[in-house]
Amino acid sequence: MSDGVQEPAAIEERRAGSPQSVTRVIRLLEALCASNEPVSLADLSRRLGTPKSSLAALLRGLADEDLVVASDGAWRLGPGAFGLGSALTEARRRLHSSDLIREGMRRLCETTGETVLLAVGDHEGDMVTYVDLVESRNVVRYSVTIGDRRPFYATAGGRALLSTCSPEAVSSYLKRVAPERLAETTEIDLEALEQAVERARKDGYAQTVDQAAQGVTGTASVIRDAAGGVVGALVVAAPSERAQGRLDQLARQTLEEAAAISRSLGFR
User: Fold this and answer.
1) Using an 8 Å Cβ cutoff, are 117 and 102 in contact?
2) Which of 145, 162, 190, 219 has the largest count of CB atoms under 10 Å?
3) Any idea where the HTH iclR-type domain is (predicted)?
4) What b/e sequence results for 102-126 when a residue is b if at least 16 CB atoms lie within 10 Å of its CB, and e otherwise?
């Protein structure tokens, strides 16, 4: 180094420790995980949109830890990567999924300021049961007891769960239960309810205003596990008066947190 000018090697070393390089390492490992064959440096550069010189430096560092291995001019995952994968699998086993879900519920309660629930369907498929909650700190808040049950058709959680079923199954359910009014504005028209479930299927979330109870607005999105199975519905329950004017915001926050929890459970 002279006259304050850094040599290329020093610049590369500094870049290798940058947050951008951490992201590149993750994307690099993901690309190798997704390939059944070794991948050339040129192909990795094209897939990741990253200069070959930058990737070469990262690959050398990963090779030093046996996370990647050079193979006939290309690169594949090394034994260190599989050892790390096994360690992560064991860590996930120790950190039970319910802990990950509850952590996400706390985050959503904090960001929305409202009560957050986890709803699951019963074996008959006619009711949702609230199996966990994180209560809002607001003096005026929606209150529910763990174990309380509500009809699918009148709740955001129920409609979100119904949206994972086939249209034929939804139609059969609605005809079987014969919807009744639980509040003055409860929707009981079968066609309207089917359309509401279809919107939830399309949007990825369901939202109800004054349906299961007067003055309560619910917003829900489904949580999935690593196998793609439905774990339950993440629900934000708020007084309707406070929810008005921020329905879109509540929908976005609920949808994003349900997706984040699903990712933590291994859903891709």
Assistant:
1) no
2) 219
3) 19-79
4) bebbebbbebbebbbbbbbbeeebe
